[in-house]
Design goal:
Helix content: 40-55%
Number of strands: 14
Strand order of the largest sheet: 4-10-9-8-7-5-6
Shape: globular
Mean pLDDT: 85
Radius of gyration: 32 Å
Structural class: alpha/beta
Strand content: 5-15%
Length: 603
């Protein structure tokens, strides 16, 4: 009613009681003198008083309105009225709500009826049935990774040993003696749990040391640790963008669910731009003045496709249009850059090698990114998430984000292991070198076998299947017949029709394991009749498979004309560095110097 009274000068000065009186009062015939036909009066239904029919004085009054009147004059044949003209200030309103009943007229709920209770279990089963029907139901395999034999594991039956090819423990740090022993020492010294939130008994020297290490790694003023990077992304985006007045968010179409969740929770206006499409992003940015707060959210390595965000170009657009950048480096930290700070560091590889650790490199790509988020649960081999940014932004999130404030902090052994892992990978190139060389070899072997790999310049090896049922069948066959574990990926993680197997070679996979994997995939593809690369070419291509190379490069990111993020010269430098550091010893899986060195550094 308030909308109508503001728009209509008559309603603005007429009380509700007067309107109700008009609605209840009949109209004297003929009504034609007011431009209202007899049949219209007889058949009119008053929208103000639901259920009231017949001759309404209010309807007659409405016919005098210069805006509404012409539209409610209908012919004597009883035709329905024409739509209200767009000029009507309340044309979009369906009806005026009646006044609420007085408290004495409302019948109390007695719960003594025969009404059935909602079928909660039925709803659960209905939702699950839909998952089974579209083949997107998720089955969790019982896989128990063996620290002493990584990347091998046993299934539910301890004697059944399988090789894991899809772990996000990308560099095998979870079993690195440096990490494990640092955690054991902290466990013996400080116990298993944190004891509370960071504000209440859960803030220790290890947490502060971890945040200092992360800030140093990314050459930022400060960092803040969360229980996971899902929480870090959700809490940071929702808190920051709900605080910025009139903030508009620009999000890459392929962003992770945690970023999408944070954007939703912020309540800010959002635009979704096509993956790595700079023209589309700029078109969206150009709609708003520079004074409007804006945030561009994107990733460095997209985990299911292996494509790489166009970081320098997006940062340039942010500067041009007055936006800040939010870069998710979850699937890059530990693996890219000479110190493992991620793809943003890798863009300035040589400069990062020369500059002292932790020192800001003015004008570098890393320096241009405003907010970096990362995880401790993938290449660093532990668990947890974090952000790194300016000290003011970090302190604001620390002070306002419920996802940080109201949760128990990471256990001290976790923090100790994370510190040890960050320090270790900041100094060692061995794991990154082995991972990248194994990735290249596997991609080449699969290409030779005609197994369709989604092209990308990173360490992810996505093998395109094309439907959920076949992807699961391929995964099951690899596990049952070949003792190889590769998880199938389906909707909503990837779009329908782009289902795949996601392979992640690591430093522990040797030549024999790789040969077995390629042979097994070739056999599975033949047995199930799955499409190979040439088949996708005949269909016009999908996800970059079987597509024109130039077109694919627009999608995969990184530098035009450069096939891999880790270039040949950089891999050679990493190899030579490790050989020199170890006195000429060949590069093999990492052997720690001494556990005590790490523990002493933490003191």
């Amino acid at each position: 009613m308030s909308l109508l009274t503001k728009a209509c000068p008559y309603l603005a000065r007429t009380g509700m009681s007067a309107l109700q009186g008009l609605a209840a009062t009949g109209v004297n015939v003929p009504g034609a003198s007011r431009g209202l036909s007899t049949s219209a009066v007889d058949e009119a239904r008053c929208s103000v008083c639901p259920g009231h029919t017949g001759q309404s004085a209010l309807l007659a009054k409405a016919s005098q309105c210069p805006v509404v009147g012409p539209s409610i004059r209908i012919n004597d044949a009883g035709k329905t009225s024409q739509p209200l003209p767009a000029a009507c200030p309340y044309a979009s309103c369906n009806s005026i709500k009646p006044e609420p009943k007085a408290a004495s007229e409302v019948q109390p709920v007695t719960h003594k009826t025969n009404e059935a209770v909602f079928d909660y279990e039925g709803m659960y089963q209905e939702k699950l049935a839909k998952k089974h029907e579209d083949k997107s139901y998720r089955y969790f395999n019982n896989v128990n990774r063996l620290a002493a034999r990584f990347p091998q594991a046993h299934t539910a039956k301890a004697s059944n040993i399988v090789t894991v090819w899809c772990s996000n423990d990308y560099l095998g740090q979870s079993k690195n003696p440096v990490v494990v022993n640092a955690m054991k020492t902290a466990l013996d010294t400080y116990g298993a749990g944190a004891g509370g939130t960071r504000n209440i008994a859960g803030n220790s020297a290890l947490h502060l040391r971890l945040e200092a290490e992360l800030a140093t790694l990314h050459r930022k003023e400060a960092a803040l640790v969360f229980s996971s990077c899902f929480v870090a992304n959700d809490a940071t985006l929702s808190t920051l963008c709900s605080s910025l007045p009139g903030c508009v968010i620009f999000s890459d179409k392929m962003n992770h669910a945690s970023m999408i969740q944070g954007i939703r929770h912020s309540g800010a206006r959002k635009h979704v731009f096509d993956h790595n499409d700079l023209e589309h992003l700029e078109q969206q940015l150009a709609q708003y003045p520079r004074s409007t707060p804006k945030l561009i959210a994107f990733e460095s390595v997209y985990s299911m496709s292996g494509t790489v965000g166009r970081i320098p170009e997006i940062c340039a657009l942010a500067r041009k249009y007055g936006a800040i950048t939010f870069l998710d480096e979850v699937h890059a930290v530990g693996m890219y850059g000479p110190h493992g700070a991620g793809v943003a560091e890798h863009y300035d590889y040589e400069a990062s090698l020369r500059a002292p650790v932790g020192q800001r490199i003015s004008g570098s790509v890393l320096d241009q990114v405003d907010i970096i988020t990362g995880t401790l649960g993938k290449a660093f081999g532990i668990v947890g998430g974090y952000i790194a940014a300016s000290s003011s932004l970090v302190d604001m999130i620390r002070s306002y984000a419920p996802g940080f404030i109201f949760t128990t902090s990471l256990p001290p052994p976790i923090a100790a292991g994370a510190v040890a892992s960050i320090q270790y990978l900041s100094a060692s190139q061995r794991e990154r070198y082995l991972q990248q060389t194994h990735v290249r070899q596997l991609k080449d072997d699969l290409e030779s076998a005609g197994v369709p790999v989604v092209p990308n310049p990173s360490h992810i090896v996505p093998v395109l299947v094309g439907d959920a049922e076949s992807a699961k069948a391929a995964s099951d066959m690899l596990l049952a017949k070949h003792n190889i574990y590769v998880q199938s990926i389906n909707y909503p993680t990837v779009p329908v029709g782009e289902e795949r197997l996601r392979i992640t070679p690591g430093p522990g996979h040797d030549n024999y394991m790789r040969a077995r994997l390629v042979s097994a995939l070739d056999s599975v593809w033949s047995t199930l009749g799955l499409r190979r690369t040439v088949d996708w070419e005949r269909l016009g291509g999908r996800c970059g498979v079987g597509e024109d190379r130039a077109n694919s490069e627009l999608h995969v990111g990184w530098k035009r004309g450069v096939e891999n993020v880790w270039e040949d010269a950089q891999l050679k430098q990493a190899h030579d560095f490790e050989r020199a550091r170890k006195g000429g010893v060949p590069i093999t899986p990492a052997i720690p110097e001494t556990v005590q060195q790490i523990i002493s550094a933490m003191a």
